[in-house]
Amino acid sequence: MNLPKKVKIVEVGPRDGLQNEKDTISAEVKIELVNRLAAAGFPNVEAASFVSPKWVPQMATSAEVMHGITRRPGVVYSALVPNMKGFEAALEAGVDEVVIFGAASEAFSQKNINCSIAESIDRFAEVARAAKEHRKRLRAAVSCAFGCPYQGEVPLEAVADVVRRFRELGCDEIDIADTIGVATPGKVRPVMETAIREFHIEGLSGHFHDTYGQALANIYASLQTGISIYHASVAGLGGCPYAKGATGNVATEDVLYMMNGLGIETGVDLDAVVEAGQFISQQLGRRSVSRAGNAIAAKRAG
Amino acid sequence: MNLPKKVKIVEVGPRDGLQNEKDTISAEVKIELVNRLAAAGFPNVEAASFVSPKWVPQMATSAEVMHGITRRPGVVYSALVPNMKGFEAALEAGVDEVVIFGAASEAFSQKNINCSIAESIDRFAEVARAAKEHRKRLRAAVSCAFGCPYQGEVPLEAVADVVRRFRELGCDEIDIADTIGVATPGKVRPVMETAIREFHIEGLSGHFHDTYGQALANIYASLQTGISIYHASVAGLGGCPYAKGATGNVATEDVLYMMNGLGIETGVDLDAVVEAGQFISQQLGRRSVSRAGNAIAAKRAG
Prior knowledge:
The structure is a homodimer. The first copy, chain A, has a single domain, classed as TIM Barrel (Alpha-Beta Barrel), CATH 3.20.20.70. The first copy, chain A, contains 13 helices and eight strands. Chain A has helices at about 15, 25-40, 60-70, 85-90, 105-115, 115-120, 125-135, 155-170, 185-200, 215-225, 250-260, 270-285, 290-300; strands at about 10, 45-50, 75-80, 95-105, 135-145, 175-180, 205-210, 230. Chain A has an eight-stranded parallel beta sheet with strand order 7-6-5-4-3-2-1-8. In chain A, helix 2 (about 25-40) packs antiparallel against helix 12 and helix 8 runs parallel beside helix 9. The termini of chain A are far apart.
């Protein structure tokens, strides 16, 4: 049971977390959130998304956010880019890492972007070349790697295939994502081992959702396979579009509490993250869904 | 990684879950809850507590509840008993299993019941003899086995000592409890292995709290040690008296979702538990804290 001694936590709250919020969140609030998270010690903050504002209105202020933040040396600021137009906007905004995406589920790919998995990844070839040319890190997110809302089971071979395609595009990092939170720990091992056969383990990350409360157990199972990069969202920002009112991304505070307990180094200050979580929850006018965040805040309040 | 093929889930919601509720819950509602849980397939339901109503007013209706429920053949109905007076009341009410208790933390024992761990367990000798005489199952709960709100760390030797004392009293089952939810998976293995050295593994159970969101990861780590009995509380009933507003007992729905995903047999119908969770949450006028419960209910609602 040799767990990694050190992990990288990628804080995805400002982008993946906030993108589904209905009420407009001002650029100021997003800037404050990104700055707080970078100051807390995250090596990587997913801060923006250069998609069409027609698709994701909440991300319309991405350039403003990127220009407004105080850049912290050593921190990688990432943004999602769906195409060359998005890449150019990300470039102009000074993004360090661009994130492209594809599904491991054929049904999900067809339903969401109306093309096959293979086609959807091929379309990123130009973005991938441009990222290399401009020396930007290139990350790829593999959605529905553990299950799909449309087709249910996702074959391991489909995971292997999409990881291979992203490797061939020259990706530096590949995220294996449980988009709908259906994984349980017994599923984590075979999926991660499949990804590990196709890509160097140091560049693979686990992106788990807590829809059914399984995220931390899944991260623990994933640590046992040696994966050492995990995504998390402060205050558990981000719901689940496939089950209204359900939980989405795993809460960063809960992940950090576990890593601290396991003696695994993250370089992140949990107390500062709890404060950032309370800050954004207040701004959104609702309670944080992080259990550790709420417990620590409650103990502080006395 | 040989996990148990079958586990016993002890549903503790009606007792451990509800005991801290401030508003009085009618005996009718408790009876309905216990009946729904027994019908869902739990082999063991913790239904009552024969403590002084001065200490725990919510449990004052315990005899009424026990007399009012429809006894389901094969289901073990348990009740907490602090002393002989409680035992006699439990006996009269037809309880199948009596639950006694002690802490693994000396500070907790002194603070809560004003005597040493050893003294507190000695006081149960008469209850233990009476349980044997009346052929009642005898279960013991070891609180603060993973950490204490007063002394912090709890030495493994203290866990070994209290398990040994309960074994000597003739207990059939011993619960290793993370009363304040501070454990992380790396702590679970040494504590459980300590208990396993002192008591037969088939009679040991894991009682985890989700205060910091760690419960499911801890249960997964505990499954890896071979422990095959787990406590859970429908809808996550039961807060944390040491951090107001924080989460308490792990939610049964989340535990069942994991066991189902792992292919571990429980004999319990998750859908029926989700319904019982929605029922009691409506009665309490608040949202369930079970993530799986809420996600499944949300999907059902459409």
